[in-house]
């Protein structure tokens, strides 16, 4: 019989075409085989059988069991992989994978949904009440990304002959309001002109279930609706998990500024995050009994240990470590979801590899 899986992680690094697997199994192996190009089967003494889905197909080898190393309570393997068409984007060094990635529910996706014949409704994620029909949106635009706004700010206030230095990023953002019938797509929210909204109260509450969908907008005529309070419905409904905003922001920063270290702050809690790699294919438990595959993940090291964070910070400020440390600021819903997703990721990884020094190891994928 096939059992629920023990903690395991299979990681595919596309740039070096390497697939490595670690499985928390102390028992002696009876057999090890590939049931398909991307499924590894193991039977241990006593007859228990496990099946692990891999994030990338591997090359068939005749003596698979020879690839298995016993590493304490872990079985580890490194397996050769064939190069797929989808890997080529990573092998082309001139291609910035992170910059060309399209975030979920960005203005391109909404524009596509608006132009297809099947209507997309924006509904309350809590009760399903319809709030907006995308086909009624007259102008649909993306807000400049936060990075873009910061670069504009930088460019603006460092121009040598610039007299007026008072415009802050916030003020610039504040200047963006949707035109009548319009919708502006922000990183984690929609700014929607009130004239096309239905069933939404003055304080951005759902008139069906009273749940809070957002807040007042940048002008009297619009509301700021949080993506995670909404669902897109075109026969199937799709939701937006809050951590996705954090994932997009991290990918943006790594892609644009090549920062790798981040402090995420919320009131009293702090998280130090090190983005160790990106574009990684992973399968691991991720809170599921048999595990799931996540493509295009960030490999993330993190800690919430305040002493370690302070030590790391002071080393940075003394110039002992040369890399930039960027401070990120997320709404609390995003922070809470991010921490939960990181913890679930860590707990599905075998004991021996879920820590790296004082860092916890986790993966952030697009569909956790
Ligand atoms: Zn400046
Ligand atoms: Zn509702």
TrEMBL record:
GO biological process: proteasome-mediated ubiquitin-dependent protein catabolic process; protein autoubiquitination; protein monoubiquitination; protein polyubiquitination
Protein's name in the database: Uncharacterized protein
The organism of origin for this protein: Kuraishia capsulata CBS 1993
A Pfam family the protein falls into: HECT_2
GO molecular function: cyclin binding; ubiquitin conjugating enzyme binding; ubiquitin protein ligase activity
InterPro entries for the chain: UBQ-conj_enz_E2-bd_prot
Superkingdom per UniProt: Eukaryota
GO CC annotation: cytosol; nucleus; ubiquitin ligase complex
PANTHER family linked: E3 UBIQUITIN-PROTEIN LIGASE E3D (PTHR31531:SF2), E3 UBIQUITIN-PROTEIN LIGASE E3D FAMILY MEMBER (PTHR31531)
């Amino acid at each position: 019989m096939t059992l629920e899986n023990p903690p395991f992680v299979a990681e595919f690094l596309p740039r070096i075409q390497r697939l490595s697997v670690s499985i928390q199994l102390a028992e002696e192996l009876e057999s090890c085989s590939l049931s398909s190009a991307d499924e590894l089967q193991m039977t241990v003494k006593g007859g228990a059988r496990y099946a692990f889905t891999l994030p990338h197909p591997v090359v068939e080898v005749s003596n698979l069991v020879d690839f298995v190393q016993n590493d304490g309570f872990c079985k580890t393997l490194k397996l050769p992989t064939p190069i797929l068409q989808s890997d080529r984007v990573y092998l082309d060094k001139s291609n910035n994978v992170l910059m060309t990635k399209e975030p979920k529910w960005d203005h391109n996706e909404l524009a596509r949904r608006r132009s297809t014949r099947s209507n997309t409704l924006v509904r309350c994620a809590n009760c399903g009440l319809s709030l907006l029909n995308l086909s009624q949106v007259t102008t649909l635009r993306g807000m400049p990304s936060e990075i873009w706004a910061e670069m504009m700010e930088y460019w603006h206030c460092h121009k040598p002959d610039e007299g007026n230095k008072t415009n802050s990023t916030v003020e610039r953002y504040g200047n963006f309001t949707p035109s009548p019938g319009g919708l502006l797509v922000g990183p984690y929210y929609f700014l929607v002109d009130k004239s096309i909204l239905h069933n939404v109260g003055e304080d951005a509450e759902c008139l069906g279930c009273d749940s809070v969908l957002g807040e007042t907008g940048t002008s009297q005529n619009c509301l700021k609706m949080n993506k995670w309070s909404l669902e897109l419905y075109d026969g199937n409904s799709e939701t937006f998990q809050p951590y996705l905003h954090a994932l997009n922001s991290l990918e943006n920063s790594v892609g644009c500024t090549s920062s790798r270290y981040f402090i995420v702050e919320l009131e009293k809690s702090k998280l130090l995050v090190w983005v160790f790699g990106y574009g990684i294919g992973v399968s691991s438990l991720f809170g599921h009994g048999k595990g799931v595959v996540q493509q295009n993940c960030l490999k993330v090291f993190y800690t919430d240990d305040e002493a370690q964070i302070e030590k790391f910070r002071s080393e940075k400020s003394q110039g002992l470590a040369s890399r930039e440390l960027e401070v990120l600021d997320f709404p609390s819903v995003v922070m809470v979801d991010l921490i939960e997703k990181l913890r679930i990721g860590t707990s599905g990884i075998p004991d021996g590899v879920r820590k790296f020094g004082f860092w916890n190891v986790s993966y952030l994928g697009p569909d956790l």
